[in-house]
Amino acid sequence: MKNALEDRIAAGQDRIIAQRNMVRAAEIPGWGMDADPDNDPTYPMKHSNGADHERLDYEKAPQQPLDMEILHSIERPGVTRVFGTSTPPIGLSGAIRRFAYKYSEATATHWMTLILADRVDTIQGKLDDLVHGILPNPWIERGWRAEWKYNRAGFIRNTATTALLLTAGIMLLKRKNRRKRQLNQE
Prior knowledge:
Blueprint: H1 13-25, H2 91-100, H3 108-131, H4 138-141, H5 144-150, H6 152-185
């Protein structure tokens, strides 16, 4: 099967792509403003060396081997030539990520579901650490040691505020429970 991504962009192909994008750009205000290589938005900040348009005629990188599941946007026909493999989708967070990638990147469902997957992945990581005999050390993991060393007053203030809010919340809950018991006894 022929690879969908060509190995080399032919001369003039950039103009064809730019023209196709400019047709779409007319429909959406502000969209595609950098699609035309002749209308470079970085001018005059970028110093031209005369060969700026030659950068479009280049050898593409070879496709990175697909030896694990790679999630990609539904807006793309396939995976990019190079991609990260440090955190493959696994467990419950992986299932949530697979669900998120069924939606467009333009939707809140996509992004909010990915945020949820990150939170679930954090919990999965803590459980995995416990399974492997590694106890969590919040003093270091949350950066409290550095906070104590470099921002002691802020650390004390934040800790006191948190303790005060937790105490107030517990007292309100106890008062509410006490009132419920008094009403039930009457």
